[in-house]
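The methods section describes the discrete structure representation at length, but only in general terms. What matters is that the chain and its backbone geometry are given together, residue for residue. For illustration, here is how one protein appears when written out as sequence plus structure tokens:
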Amino acid sequence: MGTIVCQACNSTIDHFEDEKVTVLYSKCDDGCAHDHIAEE
């Protein structure tokens, strides 16, 4: 299970399937004006 995290605001953007636990850093598509909800 992998997680994509916003580099600017540190919010969880998305989850993806992977063989090992991974955290990737990206940027929000909407300039961090969002209410992402972590799916756990």
